[in-house]
Write a structure and sequence with these properties.
By secondary structure, this protein is of the alpha+beta class. It contains 7 helices and 8 strands, in the order ααββββαβαββααβα.
Length: 237
């Protein structure tokens, strides 16, 4: 799957204009586009991930979980370039990563597209092993035991009903049973499906200033435009 966002429409038009203004041989034209992909777009993607922000400088939405650490750390490593001289261009794509949804492999391009553009997915309880009995053998957690005690959960001991200790709950009650009891005692209906919103975290792309500098630098690198400066390229914001 090809991920959009390499260059925006204005930047692409500017690059085409720069190419048209110079009498570049086909080989050097192709080399310039490859270098822009490698040292412009992919380099910018690494920078965006390092800074955890979009090309326009906006910080990415944070995780909704307690998990810490940088997001999309490995994504730039999966970016590759495909030469496409037949259309006088190159294509940036994602490959590898070993992503999986349960036992099903997920292409890196699918993961990259969802992160780049954001998406909303509706999942059912039956499709989530961890939500539908896939935790066999796991016992209740301390948090579940604490919640059960707070909700007034009791067990019958002889002729009396008493509140079990947290230790007894965590050592004898299955995880799924604890979750079911918590939902019942809380009076909450069991959800059969729910929506997961993944916010867009744009990592692939350059702002106009980065584009201008990259184009000037790569024109110099291939031996053309040795005296071109970034500020001389139109479209600078």
């Amino acid at each position: 799957m090809i991920v959009g966002g390499e260059l925006n429409k204005r930047q692409l038009a500017e690059m085409r204009k720069a190419l048209a203004s110079m009498d570049l041989p086909a080989a050097k034209r192709q080399r310039l586009m490859w270098r822009m992909a490698k040292y412009g777009v992919i380099a910018a993607a690494k920078r965006n991930v390092r800074n955890q922000e979009s090309p326009d400088g906006q910080a990415w939405p944070g995780r909704k979980t307690r998990r810490k650490g940088k997001m999309l750390r490995n994504m730039p490593k999966l970016l590759h370039i495909r030469e496409m001289p037949e259309i006088q261009g190159v294509r940036i794509y994602l490959q590898g990563g070993g992503y999986r949804n349960g036992e099903t492999p997920v292409p890196a391009g699918t993961v990259g597209y969802s992160q780049q553009n954001g998406m909303r997915v509706r999942v059912s309880r039956s499709s989530q092993p961890g939500k539908a009995g896939g935790r066999e053998g796991k016992l209740a957690t301390a948090a579940q035991a604490k919640k059960l005690r707070a909700l007034g959960y009791r067990i019958k001991t002889g002729k009396r009903w008493k509140k079990p200790t947290m230790r007894k709950i965590t050592e004898s009650m299955p995880y799924n049973q604890a979750g079911l009891l918590i939902r019942k005692l809380s009076g909450k209906a069991v959800k059969t499906s729910w929506a997961i919103d993944l916010p867009a975290r744009v990592f692939l792309g350059m702002n106009d200033d980065e584009f201008n500098k990259a184009l000037a630098r790569q024109l110099q690198a291939i031996g053309f435009g040795w005296n071109v400066k970034a500020q001389d390229i139109k479209g600078k914001t």
